[in-house]
Design brief:
This protein has ten helices and 19 strands. The protein is α+β, with helices and mostly antiparallel strands and about 400 residues long. It has one domain: Alpha-Beta Plaits (2-Layer Sandwich), CATH 3.30.70.20. The longest helix has 12 residues. It is globular and about 70 Å long. About 45% of the residues are buried. Bound molecules: iron/sulfur cluster (3 copies) and FE3-S4 cluster.
């Protein structure tokens, strides 16, 4: 079994194929703190890609309420339990030895889903959810752990829930790809998007079984599996709106809460990100480390990163996002001047932003957050496309628009 480097785990791991990583990698940052669960992203995907017969239970993008919700139901609890059973008490992190680039969260000392499999009958530990688990995609919507009578205060709430936005992670080491006996799944070198070749697929469903995030889905009407295609025509720049330039996907571009920022990062042959300080995703994930991978311990090196919710008990978040949670929340609670500016780029344009620049602006206020005094500056952040051309310019202070006293009535 070849060894590959997984920087989320801070160590090498077993993976079926040695040459995994792509030169450019599809990636995104989701700010959980801002999601309003409007499901616009979910419907943007559904109405584009999965509205046909046989796709009724298929939601490539979904937003579920944690801790109880899940699509399919209990997807994460089920695989966490299987992993714990295979390696009792051993699924732990050593967060004392960190390296900013090769082990930013420390080292995972447990076993990945590849390492708990026997590698003879199964390449990956997993399971196929029963059909009823796919039937209620938004089960337990807005259900909190309890409802306290009195008001609650940050940092942690005694009764809590949060929204988790999910799609295929276009993993650097995809479990679906490793598991398919037909080699029907491939990862594109140009953008790291993971696709199923529908011509080769024979419906073996090993991909459904293997994906720990349950984002490969079986379609009974064609007897093949399907998954998020990363809206690749948009990422390739085929949409006439952007004149051949890479464009964000449907679920990203439609986000009402402005919680999503998608892009393409440069990756080396070892799966690590190549330094690109002015790429907003590189800055958020590698420099500030304010956004973290979802269940990095599974070992697929997923490429959707999350700014964790501030009000949720830390133990729960550490299990979900690894040991980087406390630092990430501290950074988000009191963001640096640059971080505050970069956060304004979320959903500011449909074109993919490849680099940014911050221009200093005047001081506009002084505030105290979590006991820390802060000065706020109305800086300007400018986003550039893949050719270095300016595509967006936004300010930290939102403009105040006053309506005219005399309003013209719509008389239709
Ligand atoms: Fe495959 Fe699942 Fe990773 Fe998507 S999230 S690439 S379906 S393993
Ligand atoms: Fe659907 Fe495209 Fe979003 Fe994938 S990237 S979930 S295909 S809208
Ligand atoms: Fe959340 Fe944005 Fe989706 Fe609405 S569109 S549910 S705010 S991720
Ligand atoms: Fe392979 Fe999954 Fe099809 S395992 S054959 S891609 S159903």
């Amino acid at each position: 079994m070849p060894k590959v480097y997984n920087w989320h785990l801070g160590r090498e791991m077993d993976y079926r194929f040695a040459g995994g990583p792509a030169k450019r990698q599809f990636a995104a940052v989701f700010n959980i703190n801002r999601c309003i669960a409007c499901q616009t992203c979910t419907m943007a995907c559904k109405s584009t890609w999965t509205f046909s017969p046989g796709q009724e239970l298929m939601w490539w993008n979904n937003v579920e309420t944690k801790p109880y919700g899940g699509y399919p139901q209990h997807w994460d609890v089920n695989i966490l339990e299987m992993q714990e059973k295979a390696n009792p008490g051993g699924q732990v992190w050593n967060a004392t030895q960190k390296d900013p680039r090769t082990a930013p969260y420390g080292t995972f000392e447990g076993k990945t889903i590849f390492e708990t499999a026997d590698q003879i009958n199964n390449m990956v530990t997993g399971y196929i959810p029963p059909e009823e688990d796919w039937k209620a995609p938004n089960i337990f919507e807005d259900t909190a752990t309890n409802y306290p009578k009195q008001g609650v205060e940050l940092p942690e709430h005694s009764g809590w829930f949060f929204y988790l936005q999910r799609l295929c992670n276009h993993c650097t080491y995809p479990a679906c790809l490793a598991a398919c006996p037909r080699n029907a799944i491939y990862k594109r070198e140009e953008d790291g998007i993971v696709l199923i070749d529908e011509g080769r697929c024979r419906g073996y469903r090993k991909c459904v079984e293997a994906c720990p995030y349950k984002k490969s889905m079986y379609r009974p009407s064609t007897r093949t599996s399907e998954k998020c295609i990363g809206c690749y025509p948009r990422v390739e720049g085929s949409d006439p709106l952007t004149n051949g330039l890479p464009m964000e996907t449907r679920c990203m571009a439609g986000c009402i809460g402005k919680i999503r920022l998608q892009g393409l990062i440069q990756a080396g042959a070892d799966g690590q990100w190549i330094e690109d300080r002015q790429n907003p995703l590189y800055y958020l994930v590698q420099v500030e480390k304010v956004a973290l991978p979802l269940y990095p311990q599974f070992g697929t090196q997923p490429n959707i990163y999350y700014i964790p919710p501030r009000w949720v008990p830390r133990d729960y978040l550490r299990q979900m996002f690894g040991p980087g949670v406390d630092d990430a929340i501290a950074k988000y609670t009191n963001p640096s001047r640059e971080l505050l500016a970069v956060l304004q780029l979320f959903r500011a344009t449909q074109e993919i932003i490849f680099s940014y620049k911050v221009e200093p602006g005047p001081k506009t206020s002084e505030i105290t957050v979590a006991g820390v005094k802060r000065e706020i500056y109305n800086d300007t952040v400018i986003g550039y496309d893949s050719n270095g051309k300016e595509i967006v310019r936004v300010h930290v202070d939102e403009p105040l628009i006053e309506r005219p006293a005399q309003v013209t009535m719509n008389t239709i």
